Amino acid sequence: MNLPHLHLLLNHVPTVGFGAGLGLFFLALITRDEPLQRQSLRVIVLVALVSIPVYLTGVAAGRLIERLPGVSDIRIRIHGDAALLAFVVMELTGAVAWLALWQARRFRRPLPNTVAAVVLLAVASFGLMARAAYIGGMIRHPEVISPADSEPTETAWLTNASVKALVLDTTSVWPTAETVHFIGLALSFGIVLVLNLRILGVMKSIAFADLHRLLPWGLMGFGVNLVSGMLFFIAIPEQYDTNIAFQWKMLLLTLIGVNLLYFTSAEEPWTTGAGVDAPISAKVFAASAILLWSGVVFFGRMLPYIGGSF
Amino acid sequence: MMGLLEAIEASGISTWVRESRSIFAYPMVLTLHTFGLAIIVGSSAVLNLRLLGFGSHIPLKPLKALFPIMWIGFCVNAFSGLLLLARAATTVGISGVFWTKIALIAVSMWVLIRIKHTVFDGEAIDARAIPKGARLLACASILLWAAAITAGRLMAYIGASRPEALIGLVR
Question: Per-domain residue ranges for chain A?
Answer without folding.
Answer: 1-155, 159-310
